[in-house]
Amino acid sequence: MYSELVEIAPRELNFVFEPKKQSSCTIRLINKSQNHVAFKVKTTSPKKYCVRPNTGIIMPRETCDFTVTMQAQKAPPPDMACKDKFLVQCTAVAEETVEDDITSAMFSKDDGKYVQENKMRVILVSPPSSPVLSPINGVHSDLPSYKESPQEDQVHGNENITSQQEGDANGVHSHSGRYEESLTRDQVNTLDQIPPKELDENVKEFNKENAHMQMEGKHVQLETRKHDEEMELVKDVASMKSKISELERKLSEAKDTISRLREESKFTAQERDSLQREMVMLTSKKGGKKVRVGFPLLYVVTLAFISMMLGYLLHY
């Protein structure tokens, strides 16, 4: 179980809402670890808010503040209920990492890296009756309102987060299920001052960089998939080696059994041949000792001759 890297104070964004006026609030990030921590802020409504700064590095045991400015709105939402949400992502980085090195890939969980994610909901507060505004977490601002244009819509760098990240610990659910990077206040003011032609060139350059980043993201996904396939292949090879080793062991046992059976069969054949020879010898011995039954022929002839002689003598 990973421990919390950064503590966020406060846990909610409170804005004092006044029609056609901007409102800001400040959030403090406190690094509770001994590591350098990179953070990134996203929102479900990037056209409505600007964050300064929206990325940064927090030193160990140090703090960092970022300011969120809500652009001027014509009218409040029904019942002052705002469904907008913010996502603060934090992850440990190397000591030599600087803010320019921060990329979206740093906050990817595909490689098993720990990324702390905190969802923050937006709360709108009615202004007090006094003309002087002094809310705890909401700071009134009379900055010029943010004007939307088709070119600005193309400049927005949006990053989607799957719907599994909707909702926070307090059970607040996003109306769109998508967090996007918000523009900083400097970026908003700069857009109003850039000529259309130069803005088009910037948009084209941004599209090129965005396409390059998408290609890099696909390359990273392919490399990750290739790595996973290689790991699966290594596991399959190890399993096959284990099975082959088991088969070789069984084959060796079968060979030993066959060899033992052959020896027993050979011994049995020798025993059978020995028994047959003994039976032949016994049979030959019995044939040499035959018992004669009755009188011999010479005895019968002699007795017949004597009887004839006696008969002849008695007759005469």
Can you tell me about this structure?
The protein has helices at 150-155, 185-193, 196-288, 297-315, and strands spanning 6-9, 13-16, 22-31, 36-43, 49-52, 55-58, 63-70, 85-93, 116-125, 139-141, 180-181. The protein has 316 residues and is α+β, with helices and mostly antiparallel strands. Strands 2, 4, 6, 8, 9 and 11 form a six-stranded mixed beta sheet that branches. The chain is rod-shaped. It starts with 5 loop residues before the first strand and ends with a helix.
Indicate the percent of residues in helices.
40-55%
State which percent range the strand residues make up.
15-25%
Distance between the termini: 147 Å
> What structural class do the secondary elements suggest?
alpha+beta
Count the helices. How many? 4
| Radius of gyration, whole Å | 51 Å
Order of helices and strands: EEEEEEEEEEHEHHH
The counted number of beta strands is: 11
Q: What overall geometry do the principal axes of the alpha carbons give?
A: rod-shaped
Low-confidence sequence ranges: 130-177, 184-191
pLDDT averaged residue by residue: 77
**Main sheet, how many strands, which sense, barrel?**
6 strands, mixed
